[in-house]
Amino acid sequence: MKIPIKEYIASKFINNAYHFKCDCIIPLDITGTVVDYEISNNEIILLVQHNSKIIHVGLNAPSLLIEEV
Fold it and tell me: Where are the beta strands (DSSP E) in 1-69?
């Protein structure tokens, strides 16, 4: 079975907890569990559960840091 590479990469994040930090235009510093993902305009967007909210984290930010917890 063939699967597009972005789908494969995104699926590896599901059900794992990560700390996301980014010093972008909108600073980001959250820890949460990836519950789903979307592919939009060729970008992987992770849906992260953080304090019972779903945060969308795009992986195209150049200063994004991810640490598995």
Answer: 17-22, 28-40, 43-50, 53-58, 65-68
Provide φ and ψ at 6, rounded to 5°.
Answer: -65, -35
- 44 touches 59 (CB < 8 A): yes
Tokens of 44: 């992987």
Give tens-digit pLDDT for 9-41. Answer: 999 999 999 999 999 888 999 999 999 999 999
pTM for this structure? 0.92
- Separation CA 36–CA 48 (nearest Å): 7
Q: What's the pLDDT tens digit per position in 48-58?
A: 999 999 999 99
